[in-house]
Design goal:
The protein is α+β, with helices and mostly antiparallel strands. The protein has two helices and six strands. It has two domains: 1-31; 32-99, Immunoglobulin-like, CATH 2.60.40.
């Protein structure tokens, strides 16, 4: 039964992706995908998040629809925290997406 549900969920996502492409709509909105805008290594705008998992000066972990995103760096600060958007400033060394 679980395999059948997983298959149906996967098929529904494929249909949504097809409709998104046909209607030329932004996939991050329709498919609830995270959108990241990195400006140099100083600032990161993350849209469509589901909450903060961990936060300190060296690492920020954020829940997203695909799993979680880990931002590593130095002197990381949350400058703007909204329901679906986070602005992070500091010296960013790397980003990781984990499913």
């Amino acid at each position: 039964m679980k395999k059948k549900r997983a298959g149906l969920a996967r098929r529904a996502k494929e249909i949504q992706a097809g409709v998104t492409e046909i209607l030329e709509m932004p996939p991050e909105i329709v498919l609830d995908l995270p959108k990241l805008v990195l400006i140099g290594n100083q600032e990161l705008l993350l849209q469509n998040h589901r909450g903060i998992i961990e936060y300190n000066n060296y690492q920020i972990r954020v829940s997203v629809s695909l799993g979680q995103i880990t931002i590593k760096g130095e002197m990381l600060l949350l400058k703007n925290l909204k329901q679906d958007e986070i602005l992070i400033r500091g010296k960013i060394f790397g980003l990781t997406l984990e499913e």
